[in-house]
Amino acid sequence: MTDRERAEQVHDLLRQADRLRVPGHRHTVETFLGDIGEIRVGLRRLYRELAGTEVPREPAPRRSVVTSFQPRSIPGTRATVAFRGRPKRAAASA
């Protein structure tokens, strides 16, 4: 693939990104997600052509739901989340 073809591919991806419309009155969520998917596929293809390998997939960071809330951010919320997130065996015996 020549530099000109790569430049055209990048230009096409940028044009797709520029045409991306946020869901609203005339644009549905499905079309929005489809457009994002097309951009992602194009970027993965470009990466594969440049690097010769697939894009490495990193696992999404996992955090406990309880640690997502800051202390005293919303009164009672942390306790409610902790209560709902407890193991079911403990809930059955309580």
Helix-strand makeup class = mainly alpha
Alpha carbon gap, first and last residue: 66 Å
Please state the overall shape, judged from the principal axes of the Cα atoms. Answer: elongated
- Give the total of domains: 2
Cα gyration radius (Å) = 22 Å
Task: State which percent range the strand residues make up.
Answer: under 5%
The total of beta strands comes to 0
- What string, H for helix and E for strand, traces the elements in order? HHHHH
Q: Please tally the helical runs, counting DSSP H or I stretches of 4 or more residues.
A: 5
Overall pLDDT, averaged? 78
Spans of at least 5 consecutive residues with low confidence: none
Biggest sheet, in brief? Answer: none
- Please estimate the helix content: 55-70%
Layout: helices, strands, pairs:
Layout: H1 3-19, H2 29-51, H3 65-68, H4 77-84, H5 88-93
Helix pairs in contact: 1-2
Q: How would you summarize what this structure contains?
A:
This protein is an all-alpha fold.
Kindly describe this structure.
The chain is mainly alpha-helical. It folds into 2 domains: 3-51; 59-94, no CATH class. It has 5 helices and no strands. The longest helix has 23 residues, at 29-51. The model has no long low-confidence stretch (mean pLDDT 78).
Q: What keyword list fits this structure?
A:
94 residues; mainly alpha; 2 domains
